[in-house]
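Before relying on records like the one below, remember that each one covers exactly one chain. Contacts with other chains, cofactors or solvent are not represented anywhere in the record.
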Amino acid sequence: MGTPSVHRLAQLRACRANLSPIWGLSPVSGLSALCELPGPPVARCTDDDDVHHRLWHITQPGVVDAIAAAVASAPVVIADGHHRYETALAYRDEQRRANGGRAGPYDLLMAYVVELTGEQLDVRPIHRLVRGLPNGIDVLAALAPWFDVFDAPAPPEALPAHADDAGALGLVLSGGAWLLRPRPSPADETDELDVVHLDRALATLPPHTLDYEPDVGRILAAVRSGEGDAGVLLRPVSLDQIANAARRHSPMPEKTSFFYPKPRTGLVFRMLD
């Protein structure tokens, strides 16, 4: 396992609890309606991002069975929490070896499942900040084999809207902003994703550091201050693209999407003892 999963496994051993859920997306229509319960929530709070959280405790056997049947009727896509899932599998295997293969609470993990509809979640892109490129490199020329490059209307803050209309990515350099329309490439079922085109192009650049940032303002500020050499703004992945990847059993590339709003860690714990 990678370093994040090693740390999570040590945490799971020490706490013997799921401290935060993996986040799954379900294509089952009507799942959200099953979870709409009457009466006040058992807990509520507003976090630092002004997201209002409400929790209901579902105990009615019929409702629990209906929700379980709906979730089990179609594959669930892991949107966030791949390291937690990997850690849970490692912990399960470890505990099975220690307990003679017997079943136990370690066979399960806590999950938060959201219906894959626009009314239930907002899919936002995760942009790229490129740092550490050699002095004097012509970024536009380096990206030209992979993209058709167009001047972008000002101001740079409007680049995401222009990029979406143009079917392009946005590029921000200290000298201005441009639109990058992906060139056709060899057939690939995930080629329609911006991140696939961009990853291929960035792999041809000299060694550099790549930061991931969902906030456009922070990308623009980093380029303007000289902290970053280039900012690349991606378009959000559509719900149809996510669903198509799920039907193909094809994982989405790393750092493709930022799902919002997210449940805060610490609202629910699942104890393993």
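The longest strand covers residues 176-182.
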